[in-house]
Amino acid sequence: MPVYLLLALIAALGYSTGSIFNKQAMTEGCGVFRVFAAMTWTTTVLLLPFVLLAGTAAPWHQFYQPMLATICWLGGASLWMSALRTGEVSLIAPVAGMKPVFNALLTALLLGAPLSPNVWAACGLTAVALLVMRTPDPKTHASFLKTAGLMAGAVFCYALCDVCLQKWAGGWGALRFTGLMFMMASLLMFTLIPRFGTPYRDLSRPARRHLKTGMMIASLPGICMGLAVGRYGHAPEVNVMYSSHALWSVLLVWAFGRHIGNLEHTAGRGVMLRRLAGALILLTAIVLIISGRAP
């Protein structure tokens, strides 16, 4: 497996696991803005050495490039956190599997990159997976539409961010470019402090534990995806592999969610099986990408 796909797989596992812990922290009283800021600050600290110790000169006259990427990332992250606050991880993660569709389209339209038939087939399977996961229950249909709408907006913004990374990060260095993005985002996070809600000292011990665990694990996707796309390119292929978080999220919620207080496994066998089926369709898309990639 090439390095860029391995990085995408690590990012997928980080996304799935981090989302479960972050969702549980919110359920236990930790505000969405605190979770958002903690995740961003943690990622920034981990990337800071790559910004400060980069060996090559930075093209500061092109500072607008990481700034635009930051705006796209913030848009995606804000919508994702909104979906996470009201939706279920086992649904959010599979719906986020739409990202390769947007990424392939934007890469072709904005960068003029040729896409193999396998990539387009994988994008089509991603859309099919979303239809499979759609709930037929009228009582939860509105919730599904709200979650799907928020996540569609989120993955579109994230896909735009990936286009920025693929086009511009090479001139800066992938990790320095990503680090600058998160540094700018971190500065904006300070404006959210008045909206953190319950003071940290008043949070329950489980809420604080899940917040700390979630913010560490959830920092992996930003770092790994920034490196994979910024250094190696192959954004559509990377994003289809990243979509495996749909499968991991369903499996982790089903198998281990109850051990940290997550109750999504009680949604019913039919609901979980539909989500698992959709995730498996996405896994087929990943196999298509890997088997059809250029050497």
Keywords:
globular, 295 residues, 77% helix, mainly alpha
For the largest beta-sheet, the strand count, sense and barrel status come to: none
Report helical residue fraction.
over 70%
Mean pLDDT: 81
Could you say how many structural domains there are in total? 1
Order of helices and strands: HHHHHHHHHHHHH
Poorly predicted runs: none
Q: What structural class should be given to the helix and strand makeup?
A: mainly alpha
What amount of the residues lies in strands?
under 5%
Give the number of DSSP strands. Answer: 0
The number of distinct helices, counting runs of at least 4 residues, comes to 13
Radius of gyration: 18 Å
| Overall 3D shape | globular
Distance from first to last alpha carbon: 11 Å
Describe the structure.
- The protein is mostly helical.
- The chain has one domain (3-292).
- Helices cover 77% and strands 0% of the residues.
- The protein has 13 helices and no strands.
- The chain is globular and about 50 Å long.
- It starts with a helix and ends with a helix.
Structure described in brief:
The protein has 13 helices and no strands. The chain is mainly α.
What are the SSEs and their pairings?
Layout: H1 3-27, H2 32-52, H3 64-86, H4 89-95, H5 99-111, H6 117-133, H7 138-172, H8 174-189, H9 205-217, H10 219-232, H11 235-242, H12 245-256, H13 269-292
Helix pairs in contact: 1-9, 1-10, 1-11, 1-12, 2-8, 2-9, 2-10, 3-7, 3-8, 4-12, 5-7, 5-11, 6-13, 7-8, 7-10, 8-10, 12-13
